[in-house]
Amino acid sequence: MVIGLTGANGSGKTTLANYLRDKGFYYHSLSDEIRADLEANGVAPTRENLIEKGNDLRRRFGPGVLAARTVQRIQNDRNYVVDSIRHPKEIETLRGLPRFFLLHVDAPIELRYRRAVERGDPRTPKSFEEFSALEQRERGGGGAAGQDLDACAALADATVSNDGPVEPFLARAEQVILPWMRDEPRPGWDEYFMRIARIVALRSNCIKRKVAAVIVQDRRIISTGYNGTPRGITNCNEGGCPRCNALAASGTRLDECLCSHGEENAIVQAAYHGISIKGSTLYTTFSPCLQCTKMIVNGGIADVVYNAAYPMGDTALRVLKEAGIRYQQIELS
After folding, report:
1. Which entry of 263, 264, 322, 331 is annotated as an active-site residue?
2. 189-234 tens-digit pLDDT
3. Residue 263 falls in the annotated catalytic set
4. CB 283, CB 216: distance < 8 Å
């Protein structure tokens, strides 16, 4: 999950970001992208310079450039907090992530200025009037590449007020964030095992098609297999299969193909290690061919779940039906 933070200077975004970091969230700030560019050019990262350089980067590379650079460092198995979101296009870019939520942090401007002064940051404007004038530039009206905090606030999934002590503020934020974390969807068992089969397929050495199967008993994987040349034979991707390496047309020269199918290898692998597959479920990235189907029937497999339909698989599916083996297709993107 990714929580984005937007809000004016001194609103408490950094306080909340640090709180989430202490809770195990990984931290990124879009402003860090701007600071890195300023430092590379020997320019001090004052608030005004940050505004100008941010606007310059958006003009040159598009309004979503800072978010796009950050997205490249996001991994789906972690929780992140992303600070300093200041343009609607940055939000649009981050919305492309599987689970992104935008939280707007708000506080009165007088309080925010007092906080900025108390932080002792030399970049803080010398007067409230200068602070307010800079903020007007950040709130919108700076053109397509300029900051637009008001538009970002309007796009937020929730707003948290930070107009008092820090503890109640963090408690309010937690009340918003926890339901987002608890509502994270989990894949069902069929999707779970099919996605594992797709990972197994990456081990295939066949140059024409990557196929794999996993055999599951009581929600436990007991065997896996992917297509490729038999044990001890030169791999297909090293020239071992004459049919594949001749780029034969689909359905032709099958008598020359040395590659074993993923379902076949999963079944044989179980037999090799003395593991019974009776009553199990086979997950395969392609519906089985006729030869593999006969092995499935004779091996006692009870269910077949497949992702994509094999081009010549109609007869195989009829055999599964006649043999009383349940089968279904689940299509993954």
Report:
1. 263
2. 999 999 999 999 999 999 999 999 999 999 999 999 999 999 999 9
3. yes
4. yes
